[in-house]
Amino acid sequence: MLDKVKEILAQYVEVDPAEINESTLLAEDLGLTSFAFMTMMGDFEEAFDITLDDESELNGIRTVGDVIEFLKKKTGE
After folding, report:
1. pTM to 2 decimals?
2. Which of 5, 22, 50, 53 could disulfide-pair with 74, CB 3.0 to 4.6 Å?
3. How many Cα atoms occupy the beta-carbon half-sphere of 16 within 13 Å?
């Protein structure tokens, strides 16, 4: 799952995917804006066949690892 997350993230930031790990901070380390974050989450919905029920589900997502944990919960992994 990490590789797919990195692949999608790489479309939004100018960072080598090899430098991204689970502790990488989305805003601070990657410079991801809130608009890009929401757009990216739409890509995750499509890629992982999930649906965001409410934007409040995304509260507290600060790292790549947080994204992965969120996706695991939504996909039932």
Report:
1. 0.91
2. 50
3. 2
User: How distant, in Å, are the alpha carbons of 21, 32, 43, 49 from that of 18?
Assistant: 8, 17, 20, 25
**pLDDT per position as a tens digit, 14-70:** 999 999 999 999 999 999 999 999 999 999 999 999 998 888 889 999 999 999 999
- 69: tokens are 């944990």
Do the Cβ atoms of 73 and 66 come closer than 8 Å?
no
Give the separation between CA 20 and CA 9, rounded to whole angstroms.
9
The three-state secondary structure class of 25 is: strand
